Hints:
Keywords: Signal. The relative contact order is 0.11. The chain has one helix at residues 2-29; strands spanning 62-63, 75-76, 180-185, 188-193, 198-203. The chain has one helix and five strands, in the order H-E-E-E-E-E. It has a domain at 156-203.
Amino acid sequence: MKKAVLFLSIALIVLPDVALAQQQQDRMQRPSPPTTRPAPPSRPTPPKPENRPQPPRPGGPSVQPLRPGTGGPSVQPPRPGTGGPQIQPPRPGTGGPAIQPPRPGKPQPPRPVKPQPPHRPGAGRPPHFKPIHRPGFQYPHGYRYRRWSIGLLLPAIFLSSRYYYDDYAYLGVGAPPYGYRWVRYGPDLLLVRTRTRRVVDVIYGAFY
């Protein structure tokens, strides 16, 4: 009798646990409902538009898409009002911008030379004397530079228009007195009396 009661008590204790485990196992074996919503039906995608020429942007040329049969993109020049500089082609007959030739300057008149009184023999260099540049001197055959002094006789070959010097005013020297001539001998200027060929004055270093 006691054993029957014991078995019944055990059965009462175990049966609820077995029923609970069976219910949990049934729940696990059932398929779980889907948690995500079904995707909406896909809409048909419209066809892509063909490449159409884009309007030119300000400041530069626009590149057009490739056209059938052209072989490459065409570059359009900037239209007026786009912001880029407008280059005007040369007009017919001009050939380009006209370049004005430089205007010739007005010729400067030679500076007037203040005339000096006749040079006095033996006076030497005047206070306002200034050497000037002249071409090289060609000595006659057989002659070379010699330092002449007052009182010596100049050879007659130098008493000719080839050796006379008449631009004495640019040196600041007065005109030769009557019967005298200024004669260039190398870098020096000699005042010579033409009748006697005597040297009456010498200005050394008158030319360079």
